[in-house]
Amino acid sequence: MNIKNQIKNILTDSANALGIENLDKLVVSFSNRPQLCDYQTNFAMIVGKPPMELAEKLVEKIGNVEGFEFSVAKPGFINIKLKDEVLNDYANYVDQDEDLGVEQLKEKKLVFFDYGGANVAKELHVGHLRSPIVGEALKRLHETMGNKTLSDVHLGDFGLQMGLTILQLKIDGFVDEFFKIDVDLNKIQIKGVTLDVLNEEYPKASKRKDVDEKFKAEADQITLYIQQQKQPYFEIYKQIKALSIKEIEKNYDMLNTTFDFYYGESDAYPFIEETINKFVDQGLARESEGALVVDVAREGEHIPIPKKSEDEPQRYKNPMPPAIIKKYNGGDLYATTDIATILMRNRDFAPNEIVYITDNRQVGHFEQVFRCCKLAGVSPKEQKLSHVAFGTMNGKDGKPFKTRSGETVKYKDVLNMLIEKAEAKLVENGIIGDKELARKIGVGAMKFGDLSNTVSRDYVFDIDKFLAFDGKTGPYIQYTIARINSILNKANFEGGNKIRVETQEEREIVLAILKLNSSYRVCYDAYSMNALCLSVFELASAFSTFYNNHKILSQTDEERKGAMLQLCLLVKNCLSKALYVLGIDTVEKM
Ligand code: ARG
Hints:
Elements: H1 3-17, E1 29-30, E2 39-41, H2 43-46, H3 51-62, E3 68-73, E4 77-82, H4 84-96, E5 110-114, H5 130-144, E6 148-152, H6 160-171, H7 195-211, H8 213-227, H9 233-254, H10 272-281, E7 285-288, E8 291-294, E9 303-305, E10 315-317, E11 323-327, H11 334-348, E12 353-359, H12 363-376, E13 384-390, E14 393-394, H13 411-428, H14 435-451, E15 459-460, H15 463-466, H16 474-490, H17 504-526, H18 530-549, H19 558-582
Parallel strand pairs: 5-6, 5-12, 12-13, 14-15
Antiparallel strand pairs: 1-2, 2-4, 3-4, 7-8, 8-11, 9-10
The chain binds arginine.
Arginine is lined by residues 114, 117, 119, 154, 156, 338, 356, 358.
């Protein structure tokens, strides 16, 4: 049941009858003056005739239609008000519908999501939070609207960090066993290397490589050995990776984020050769300063800006540097790895779309990768490649979130802080010692705070604001659901009644559900969840107003009471569904 389309059809018939053209300009939207009407269109103002006159004619032609009231407002708007019967029908339709009125996509696609992007042997930090938050929500949104999805965490498991970590472990004597002559590598298990050890070894090595060239060269060599599966390095690598993945999984679990695949960059390695050949064989690659590059700039891009002096570095207008697909000294092949991964995914799954979720510093990288894939036919023409680039989580000072001493905040520490703060809030409400409940609330608060922003924007990570139990926050939505649960429990209500919209407050609720349900599509098109966050909040507030102004449990008219409770149940279901899509848990009490 699509009310907007119904309105559009009525207007279209009227316009056709009057011989008015330009019907593609007919857009019906929610009213921005809800006191006056529920929907509006500015059609009469953009098709040329004197707008008021045209609007009057259109409305006159429509006359009386069932369910809707059309009227004209200066300077040429057509306002549409829904009659209670339409709202009633809509509410009962949503109540019965298995998708709760969330419109399903007409053409269903297979969409592959690449997010998370944790790096093996490196500790997750605050910069790793947004990808799983945004990625999980987008994936759930697609599923909710009928798409099939696949998801891969795409671990960074092949870079220099592995060589550095192993070299440091070797120097510090953690892996001596592996280097003894005649060892059976299948039988030795790395000892004494916990995650805490890894979390110390990598940063230590990372600092040293910047000041010690020999050390860096050795780490490069070990990185190459790993890529060549040379023993015992490869065995050490595998063991460290397994250890690290366990921890990474736990960290994502805390955020209600799961993946179909725990593939890594290393899984694309067997396809690198083939990938490079594709470019070489088709004459798409050229040599440049000892590397193999692919020109991806289009007309008007990457135009050299004349230098003012010889030693000034070359700058470009609309920069779009060539993609490097092979360096002759081995090493870093980030773009090639991503291209090879697309090759692999297309061979295995042939998705209609691949969506990447990373921070906005990688915009250039993905543009290069996507262009390369299209040029070489790694990605078929009709396949959509999307990059969702998110902004930075900032501290209250507007700068990237740091510890007091100026260091990057660890992922773990953010989660612990959220849980602690949520626990303290729960204590105020007399709930003590429920850590899992505190996690659900703390993580929900962060996610809602994050997803409420247009995805590309930076935002301020204000944990106290996010955790407020009222206002536009995750906990407020969770609280509203818990409150409805308690009403339904007290009434021993099990559903099965019809909804009847009788009061203004109930009207507002159904209108809020209408808006909520239309926001799924808005989010889908925008790859951003902010519209859903806003409308789920509006539904929760509409419910609160209703609840504050009307007695439900003490209603004596049983039919009326049943209808009201049924509406409560519907609100709960709609809110819960939206929270599910956002990746936020519901809670029984708080
Ligand atoms: N591991 C990368 C990093 O930490 C992110 C990976 C993003 N995904 C991708 N397919 N490149 O920056």
